[in-house]
Amino acid sequence: MTELFVERLTATACASDAARVRRLFESGRHKTIATIRADGSPRISGIECEFTDGELTFGSMPGARKGADLRRDPRFALHGPTEHPAEGKEADWPGEAKISGRAVPAGPVSDGPDGDLFRADIAEVVITRLNPEATLLVIESWTPRRGLRVIDRE
């Protein structure tokens, strides 16, 4: 699964879905990543990421525990920036995006401080939003195998 993120999502959904995920991730600088500690328990860390040439990449500073976690067990879950829906304007809330998969080592960080660069091998993308009337929670989930699935919840 080495195809580019946008191509993979576009193949089973549409280009606007890929653009929406990217826009949600780029709406703020700080994201949250979950990794797996050596003892198997979860670790939550702050992280920055970016889309470069159609691929999602993120780094880890030298000696950071999240980098050690990813080198030992590459599974991760990444949560984009969050924004609370404004009261009375819930229908305007853009939603939030989450991506999970495996971190693939991509060499040293080339810009900025030293560290390790990882490329995301994406297994799942989820967008959570409200319907236009702001009466239902809409969960859009995409995987390369299953494609797009949409669930409405009260």
Task: Describe the protein.
- This protein is α+β, with helices and mostly antiparallel strands.
- It has 3 helices and 9 strands.
- The model has no long low-confidence stretch (mean pLDDT 85).
- It is 18% helix and 45% strand.
- The protein has a single domain, classed as Pnp Oxidase, Chain A, CATH 2.30.110.10.
- The radius of gyration is 16 Å and the shape is elongated.
- Strands 1, 2, 3, 4, 5, 6, 7, 8 and 9 form a 9-stranded antiparallel β-sheet that branches.
Q: What's the short story on this structure?
A:
The protein is α+β, with helices and mostly antiparallel strands and 154 residues long.
What key phrases describe this protein's structure?
Pnp Oxidase, Chain A, 9 strands, alpha+beta, 3 helices, nine-stranded antiparallel β-sheet, 45% strand
| Global geometry | elongated
Query: CATH first level: which class?
Result: Mainly Beta
Question: Taking Cα atoms only, what radius of gyration do you get, to the nearest Å?
Answer: 16 Å
Q: What is the CATH architecture term?
A: Roll
Mean model confidence by pLDDT: 85
